[in-house]
């Protein structure tokens, strides 16, 4: 039906989160009907982003600059590091405008089920910054899941010898909930009500 | 947040049908995390499809061949032409395997509101085929909307002088409903129960 190029396009679109087979077909059709104004610009944007965007060597954020635009911003509070599981959580906190410090992206949580061990997490740059820079506070903004709690406890033990103040987001993260689906108000409340770990 | 490449990618993804801003961000993040295995293959598929896929000069279907693989298939019944509004409707009927003839894609319906007039529709190749080839039946498979009904009546008047048999899909298309969201069974029943117009 339409040849291998169309089948291939629909197959790749259907793998995107949020798009099933039906919406992938609708998206492909919309693109095919506007090759110059929609399809080729999207192809270019994908190629450009693949070329330009890299994980920040300091914090793990995805950015076309390295260090990223957050780590490189002198107006942000570099003494307060908010630790998140993934870049999606960082994006959620940035959209909510609730954190004026910088971030550290772990790239996962410890998980017995998924077999994620401490050495699989992005930790060395965080330790380096705590030891080298004037870091006052590390805010653990991990989801209220079993793995999130395990990771928070492990990180606290790991960071305690450095003498840095460790806090965690407290109120508002629903049990079993992920951070990056919360509304801005809930995220703000959770961050404001953080308490020592 | 992450630079102009990421913002641009999210903006273009958010314009796809079925993807809002939130799912566009999730899709972009998934792609950014797999540049080689997901992002660049999608860019290539888009570029290839934009290059290869064109409307069939005979029926208006989108295909990387012209005439399309349906018009070019000697095993299909070229004496029965199913007229649809758009390529999405053709795809739906093909998925349901309910039509063994060929198609004609009008590219729209007559609409006073949208200002679509007869000269905006893809009609000439259909008239050419009816006059030149041995076409026995034209099945009108248009949505049960005001514009669909208007278009069906207008087409019937337009085709009557050719002496071709004109039928329309009858049962199963819900009032106000579009064709390309129906299940296969409903489509099959609608096509089987077609009656003279
Ligand atoms: Zn950074
Ligand atoms: Zn064709």
UniProtKB/TrEMBL annotation, chains A, B:
<dbReference type="GO" id="GO:0008270">
    <property type="term" value="F:zinc ion binding"/>
</dbReference>
<dbReference type="InterPro" id="IPR006171">
    <property type="entry name" value="TOPRIM_dom"/>
</dbReference>
<dbReference type="InterPro" id="IPR015967">
    <property type="entry name" value="Rcmb_RecR_Znf"/>
</dbReference>
<dbReference type="Pfam" id="PF13662">
    <property type="entry name" value="Toprim_4"/>
</dbReference>
<dbReference type="InterPro" id="IPR000093">
    <property type="entry name" value="DNA_Rcmb_RecR"/>
</dbReference>
<dbReference type="Pfam" id="PF21176">
    <property type="entry name" value="RecR_HhH"/>
</dbReference>
<keyword id="KW-0863">Zinc-finger</keyword>
<feature type="domain" description="Toprim">
    <location>
        <begin position="79"/>
        <end position="174"/>
    </location>
</feature>
<keyword id="KW-0479">Metal-binding</keyword>
<dbReference type="Pfam" id="PF02132">
    <property type="entry name" value="RecR_ZnF"/>
</dbReference>
<protein>
    <recommendedName>
        <fullName>Recombination protein RecR</fullName>
    </recommendedName>
</protein>
<keyword id="KW-0233">DNA recombination</keyword>
<dbReference type="GO" id="GO:0006310">
    <property type="term" value="P:DNA recombination"/>
</dbReference>
<dbReference type="GO" id="GO:0006281">
    <property type="term" value="P:DNA repair"/>
</dbReference>
<comment type="similarity">
    <text>Belongs to the RecR family.</text>
</comment>
<keyword id="KW-0227">DNA damage</keyword>
<comment type="function">
    <text>May play a role in DNA repair. It seems to be involved in an RecBC-independent recombinational process of DNA repair. It may act with RecF and RecO.</text>
</comment>
<keyword id="KW-0234">DNA repair</keyword>
<dbReference type="Pfam" id="PF21175">
    <property type="entry name" value="RecR_C"/>
</dbReference>
<feature type="zinc finger region" description="C4-type">
    <location>
        <begin position="56"/>
        <end position="71"/>
    </location>
</feature>
<dbReference type="GO" id="GO:0003677">
    <property type="term" value="F:DNA binding"/>
</dbReference>
<dbReference type="InterPro" id="IPR034137">
    <property type="entry name" value="TOPRIM_RecR"/>
</dbReference>
<keyword id="KW-0862">Zinc</keyword>
<dbReference type="InterPro" id="IPR023627">
    <property type="entry name" value="Rcmb_RecR"/>
</dbReference>
């Amino acid at each position: 039906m339409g040849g291998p190029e169309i089948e291939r396009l629909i197959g790749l679109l259907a793998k995107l989160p949020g798009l099933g087979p039906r919406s992938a077909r609708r998206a492909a059709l919309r693109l095919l009907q506007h090759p110059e104004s929609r399809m080729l610009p999207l192809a270019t944007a994908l190629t450009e982003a693949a070329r330009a965007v890299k994980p920040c060597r300091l914090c793990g954020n995805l950015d076309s600059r390295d260090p990223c635009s957050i780590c490189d911003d002198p107006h942000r509070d570099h003494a307060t590091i908010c630790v998140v599981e993934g870049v999606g959580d960082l994006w959620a906190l940035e959209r909510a405008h609730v954190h004026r410090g910088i971030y550290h992206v772990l790239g996962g949580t410890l998980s017995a089920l998924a077999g994620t061990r401490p050495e699989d997490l992005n930790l060395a740059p965080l330790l380096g910054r705590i030891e080298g820079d004037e870091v006052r506070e590390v805010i653990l903004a991990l989801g209220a899941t079993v793995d999130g709690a395990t990771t928070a406890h492990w990180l606290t033990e790991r960071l305690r010898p450095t003498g840095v103040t460790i806090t965690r987001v407290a109120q508002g993260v629903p049990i079993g909930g992920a951070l990056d689906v919360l509304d801005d108000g809930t995220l703000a409340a959770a961050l404001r009500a953080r308490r020592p770990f």
